[in-house]
Specification:
Blueprint (H helix, E strand, L loop, with lengths): L1 H9 L32 H12 L5 H9 L2 E4 L3 E2 L21 E4 L3 E2 L10 H13 L4 E3 L9 E2 L3 H5 L4 E6 L1 E2 L11 H17 L2
Helix pairs in contact: 2-3
């Protein structure tokens, strides 16, 4: 999955974005984002500290202000409704193949436990951005409460105060030996990420 997203985002060709744009690839998400390459590390703080130091800002307060004023898309996948196992999905609240990139307002297990929950104002801004850019999108969650669920790394960015929402393709058979996605959804993810990196203010 990481290599697929790396190829997708590498093709964005973002030119002169309106704000500083950063694409960060981390690993170990499936075991808790630990270690010095997981998102629970200080990688974001260290990288932004380096950028701000080069710009002449050397105090911790400026770093915290910059992080809390940031916005992010957490490029993680969502579980598409599987017709072989319909009992674990809430069809009115889940994603489907070929219906566009998925915005996942909240994740977690047993409802929203151990998750990020994007606020509606930020979601409205992302939806408008996608609509203006011709991005087909849908909203989904990770299965029925108390049956499905799962966490993502969005919560580790939200702790800085930044706005963040999960945004990615729907997968049929997530975590199985043979996952299936729609190339239309992959293309809409590309368009959505590009619009975000280029034009989100």
């Amino acid at each position: 999955r990481v290599s697929a997203y790396a190829s997708l985002i590498a093709a964005l060709e973002v030119e002169k974005p309106k704000k500083t744009a950063l694409c960060l690839f981390v690993d170990k998400e499936e075991i808790g984002s630990s270690g010095n390459t997981g998102l629970q590390s200080l990688i974001i703080e260290n990288f932004i500290t380096e950028l701000m130091h080069k710009a002449g800002y050397n105090d911790y307060y400026s770093l915290r202000q910059a992080l809390s004023a940031s916005s992010a898309l957490s490029a993680d996948v969502n579980a598409a409704v599987d017709p072989n196992y319909p009992e674990v999905f809430e069809k009115m609240n889940c994603s489907f193949l070929s219906r566009g990139v998925v915005l996942t307002k909240y994740t977690g297990s047993r409802g929203k436990y151990d998750s990020n929950d994007a606020n509606p104002e930020f979601l409205a801004r992302i939806r408008k951005l996608f609509d203006d850019a011709g991005v087909v999108w849908q909203v989904g969650e990770l299965g029925k409460v108390d049956i499905g669920g799962g966490g993502t790394v969005a919560q580790y960015m939200a702790r800085y105060g930044m706005e963040v929402v999960d945004c990615g393709v729907a997968l049929l058979g997530m975590h199985s030996p043979f996952e299936v996605s729609s190339k239309a959804d992959v293309y809409m993810s590309y368009k959505g990420y590009k619009a975000f990196m280029q034009d989100f203010v």
